[in-house]
Design goal:
2 copies of one chain form a homodimer. The first copy, chain A, contains 16 helices and 18 strands. Chain A is of the alpha+beta class. Chain A folds into 4 domains: 85 residues, Uridine Diphospho-n-acetylenolpyruvylglucosamine Reductase, domain 2 (2-Layer Sandwich), CATH 3.30.43; 119 residues, Uridine Diphospho-n-acetylenolpyruvylglucosamine Reductase, domain 3 (2-Layer Sandwich); 111 residues, Alpha-Beta Plaits (2-Layer Sandwich); 99 residues, Alpha-Beta Plaits, CATH 3.30.70.2740. In chain A, strands 15-12-14-13-17-18-16 form a 7-stranded antiparallel beta sheet, with helices on both faces. Chain A has a 5-stranded antiparallel beta sheet with strand order 5-6-10-8-9. In chain A, strands 1-2-4-3 form a 4-stranded mixed beta sheet. In chain A, helix 13 runs antiparallel to helix 14. Chain A is globular and about 70 Å long. The two termini of chain A are 32 Å apart. At the A-B interface, strand 9, helix 8, helix 10 and helix 16 of A face strand 9, helix 8, helix 10 and helix 16 of B.
Chain lengths: 456, 456
């Protein structure tokens, strides 16, 4: 064990440091087993321990990689042999819940599921909802500004964080554990740490905003004939109280998933578009009536080819499974590349068509699936061009991201840049914006010790 | 005219520069006539002109003060003789409205009222609502992260800005005119410029988020016996669809305002608390029913002493006038100091009582009025201790802000630090947080040329 590791262990104790097989058995990737190449994983038990180990690493010029729940898909958790990993898995306490103010104070290693459970005890909800919520942590979701399924109703992670405590690259603890909805006392420092992928500081604690837990949920899956009809339905759906999801599946996605898994086929697989609409509110009778009226009027207007409405919690879960069919893709479409972009809602179908055409022209055969949270501009695309899909990843990415840039879209809507999209960042932000990002990073971490390989 | 002013005029043209009486006739303060002491006010007509004049001033080491609508109450617009003023009043175009994406792109000199008018043409709303919206500008409200009356429904300005273009202290244009609800492409630079009171850059354009214009508005004024009852009513009100305001007036405020102006007296003036409750939604029938049910149940539970409900637009305006009675304060309580703080909702009444007691003990006689947007923790307090109120301002502020700190409150909820609260900032943020703010300011404006006298 190196002299530095001995000093670090003196701070965090024997339980606070993992090495050997304990490191090798862990993965930095949610789909493959890719262990960190690091000599050790440091697991501080308090902000104070975290601060001390970071200060020690800073003095030694030791680069660090942060681990949350390791559910990210942009390579942000990958760690090399000359890097040490820090995990906050021993800092996972829910410190306080204030049901009157609607806030929850928590250590950053807690999972989103644990936060939701603590909020539910008070009839409250932490509204960030992700498939990976059982593993994804408060710290990880803050540093990536995680989105998920209910962004149109409650916003991204950024909108649900009131305060935080962060440790800077030199070990300085910056405590800004604001609990108020309104606080303009100087710069809002937490905004620096949210979404900066762990490059400006390590989130140690956070104050999260809670909302009243919805008591009503209405959900339907509908088939539509054209993209114009999808937009017309979106316009109507937005007039509804508490629209919480408007998820669009192109036929390429819905046909593929429902074709391979009959339990995911509540509607015929050949409609050009299949849309999941959901509202969540506080008034069961009024919400149901508004939902049914909206669908009835859309049907009368000729927008809807076919529809199925959920009338139980089981049916709600079953319809969401249609939209969350990535396990079908993994089983039947691998290897594939996935994309997470935002694009002007009015042109999303044009973008999908242009992408399909460009990939076909460039690579001959190509399977593509398209789906996403359309109401917030975010679509996901899966691309398979054959067994060499991964070895030709850069070419495929260049093709797709070139079109994203041409359509004025965003390189990543919610997954982040990480390492996997780093090379494409300069194409998607202006040179002065990138230079300003560098100035901020240089101001807070001039030695590039925190997550040095992500972003830029 | 100095050589620098001649060069500046060459960029902005004769209409782009004001001097002499045109400067002296303008005020930096919304209540008094306090003209800038500056030799000139620069009025660029485009981002490019703005960039060029800022670059020229940077090269000359010329400090600048930004003017928006000059409605701020924290002294942020005050300008000295060695400073030049920049106003974006000639950059006030609404550039584009996208009704499908729900966005509006605008130059920063446009007023909030102009933005709301442009949004209304598409059945949409820009939800930041301020008494000063006819004068307050997009740029000013972004740089102060303005709040207002509907924060519990739609958030602060920060939550309603999707993208912006800013000019840095050296004239660099940083363009990040994002139009998407979801975009994690690198650092979210706009967050740096929002709420930093013009010290990190000058907002030139912005992309604002629009929401569907509400079609229903329900409003009532109710009297309550105790602060516990206020909290109980708040708990019930939060269960309502689309609660948009929950404004609390302590008896000291309501009794004073309604006593001096009988047109502001819809309820007897002696109840300990008077609360304005409002919902805004999309479903008139359901919203009215939910609102009436909520009040009826609160009445049955014995929470409500008396109530009046608005049943017309005129009555809605009249009840809001009760809450917005600052003109009565100006007429009958001057001179007074006003405070804009956040405090733990559970302890807000304790804070008000402690403040009143401390002021009485310290200054003998004291008139105090307390009111605010309680549901988001924000209360406003007006204090008059006699004719020497303003000359003893620092002592009064020290007394109030000392209690704010003791209660763990926020020095300013929505008005900002500006110049008036600058001396109190170190008492209300941690030393490392303040040091981090300085690092960021030094990184982007090392010469302190932008709004050098505000914040710290």
């Amino acid at each position: 064990m190196s002299a530095l590791l001995v000093q670090l262990e003196a701070i965090v104790g024997p339980r606070g440091i993992l090495s050997g097989v304990d490191v090798a058995s862990r993965s930095c990737d949610p789909f493959d087993h890719v262990p960190p190449a690091s000599a050790a994983i440091l697991r501080p038990a308090s902000t104070e321990e975290l601060s001390r180990i970071v200060a020690l690493c800073h003095a030694a010029g030791q680069p660090l990689v942060m681990h949350g729940g390791r559910t990210g898909v942009a390579g942000g958790a990958l760690a090399g042999a000359d890097e040490l990993v820090i995990s906050l898995e021993r800092m996972a306490r829910v410190i306080a819940v204030d049901p009157v103010g609607g806030t929850l104070t928590v250590e950053a290693g807690a999972t989103i599921a644990a936060v939701q459970a603590a909020a539910a005890e008070h009839g409250l909800l932490y509204p960030i909802d992700l498939g990976s919520k059982g593993s994804a942590t408060v710290g990880g979701t803050i540093s990536t500004n995680a989105g998920g399924n209910r962004v149109i109703r409650w916003g991204m992670t950024r909108h649900n964080v009131l305060g935080l405590e962060a440790v800077l690259a030199d070990g300085t603890v910056v405590s800004a554990l604001n609990t108020f909805l309104k606080n303009n006392t100087g710069y809002d420092l937490k905004q620096m740490f949210i979404g900066s992928e762990g490059t400006l500081g390590i989130v140690a604690q956070a104050v999260l905003r809670l909302v009243p837990a919805p008591s009503s949920q209405n959900l339907a899956l509908v088939s539509l004939r054209s993209y114009d009809d999808v937009l017309a339905l979106l316009g109507r759906a937005r007039q509804m109280q508490h629209l919480s999801a408007f998820e669009v599946m192109w036929q390429d996605y819905y046909g593929f998933v429902s074709g391979h898994d009959p339990t995911r086929r509540p509607l015929a697989p050949d409609a050009p578009f299949t849309v999941l609409i959901e509202t969540m509110g506080q008034d069961e009778a009024a919400d149901s009536k508004a939902f049914e009226n909206c669908l009835a009027q859309a049907h009368e207007a000729g927008l809807i080819l076919d529809a199925v409405m959920a009338s139980s919690g089981k049916q709600i879960a079953d319809l969401w499974r249609v939209r969350e069919g990535s396990e079908v893709l993994v089983r039947h479409m691998s290897p594939f590349l996935s994309f997470d972009i935002s694009v002007d809602i009015r042109r999303a179908d044009d973008f999908v068509e242009a992408t399909r055409a460009a990939l076909k022209e460039r690579f001959g055969t190509c399977r593509m699936v398209s789906f996403g949270h359309l109401a917030d501009s975010n679509i996901h695309i899966g691309v398979h061009i054959g067994p060499d899909t991964l070895t030709r990843a850069t070419q495929i990415e260049a093709c797709v991201y070139g079109l994203v840039a041409r359509f004025g879209g965003a390189l990543t809507a919610e997954h982040g840049i990480g390492m996997t999209k780093r090379d494409f960042l300069p194409q998607h932000v202006t040179p002065t914006a990138l230079a300003t990002m560098r100035r901020l990073r240089d101001a807070l971490d001039p030695d590039r010790l925190l997550n040095r390989s992500v972003l830029f």
